[in-house]
What we know:
The structure holds two protein chains of two kinds.
Chain A: H1 6-17, H2 20-47, H3 52-65, H4 68-82, H5 91-117, H6 120-128, H7 133-163, H8 175-186, H9 189-218
Helix pairs in contact in A: 1-8, 1-9, 2-5, 2-7, 3-5, 4-5, 5-7, 6-7, 7-9, 8-9
Chain B: E1 2-11, E2 14-24, E3 29-33, H1 40-47, E4 55-60, E5 63-66, H2 72-80, E6 82-85, H3 97-108, H4 113-126, H5 142-155, E7 160-164, H6 172-187, E8 191-195, H7 199-205, E9 208-213, E10 216-221, H8 223-229, H9 233-244
Parallel strand pairs in B: 3-8, 3-9, 6-7, 7-8
Antiparallel strand pairs in B: 1-2, 1-4, 4-5, 9-10
Helix pairs in contact in B: 3-4, 3-5, 4-5, 5-6
Amino acid sequence: MRALDLDYMLGLVPVILGYVPLTLFMAAVAMVLALLLASLMAVERVIKVPVLDGFVRLFISFFRGTPLLVQLFLFYYGLPQIFAFLTQIDGVTAAIMGLTLHFSAYMAESIRAAIVGVDRSQWEAAESIGMTRGQMMRRIILPQAGRIAAPTLVNYFIDMIKSTSLAFTLGVTEMMGAAQKEAAGSFRYFEAFLVVAIIYWVMVELLSQAQRQLEGRLNRAFAR
Amino acid sequence: MIDIRGLTKRFGHQTVLDGIDLSIEAGERVVVIGPSGTGKSTLLRCINFLDRPDSGTIRLSNLGVDAKAASRADILALRRRTAFVFQNYALFANRTAKQNIMEALVTVQKQPKAEAEKRALAILAETGLSERADSYPAALSGGQQQRVGIGRAMAIGAELMLFDEPTSALDPEWVGEVLDLMRRIAERRQTMLIVTHEMQFAREIADRVLFMDGGRIVEEGPPDAIFENATDPRTRAFLKRVRSDGSA
């Protein structure tokens, strides 16, 4: 057994940190898109639009029922063989698309459950003053559902940040890819991947702190 | 002003409203009494389409709605010209007291925000809640929440205000303040349809009392006639029962 090469690790930290913006970029864009898509699907699942409901259920079933890695490979390596125009898509875009679709399926279910969890009196009060369905959802139901779903959604975001490492398998040089390249030259694989692990860990911890603050703010209206 | 014909509502096999006919004049204050589960609340909820009636017509001034053919636009129009006060207050949990009152004005009536806020503050002053304007419902007592609920209904300026057992969920200590507020609204000759178990209050403010049983209006008349000289045995039995409970 040999000792950890701490100097090597310290030297590697700034190199890997240089790829943090790309990781956050992929996760943030995918999160925003997934939230939008998931909210639309969740509202649809609650009000049940004929025909569309079948598609939404199929979508959710497929993207929850298959591994993210398989989905990414299907998009990036598989689909371009069938649809030629998809060969234009680069690894980062494919990763963002894959993350969006995959996580939107999970988030749709938790947002749907949160919508259903909003007290019946809130729906009735909104109806009684003559709000349209859209107004009711936007102004009363979704904000309250958001509060219920927030802890779960932040968990998905954390999962999403970590899942961006799979973009490595699409040839994207992100944190994992950079560490792999560095280690290939120095043969210090353990140190390189340990640096990656620690940086992910710290990012997630910082996010968990932010989560506690967010929940405090969201609960303000409900404090007695 | 409001004219209801043949209003019928079934839940499964049970007929909850059995062809209700009811006309209310502008400025009239009508109180509905009767045993639990006889369709009093359902009547109010059907007028606002919170429950969709199975058949019958509701005419409010120049707006006619046929239950069987009611479009979404008809229902919205009807709801925008009536106001509903809920037994459980049903304040918007994510809005402050002031915002609860402003919501319909800003979102539904498209009033400028400043104007809506002015109106909301005036109503809060009237309901004695000025200092709670920025409190969220969870921080208010039951009585305060219901006064905001009534304030929200007042703000709409509805032709008809519907009160669905507004004091039934309240601790006894808060009932008085809510009834006081309703008395003040009644004094302005606001058209009101009230379901309540507060018999003394009913007697005081009603122009007309309806006794409902089994999904029908069994008997109606001025409060004195109903409370002193009810002719239908069911009305007499009900009044005797509530009096022996000490509630009137």
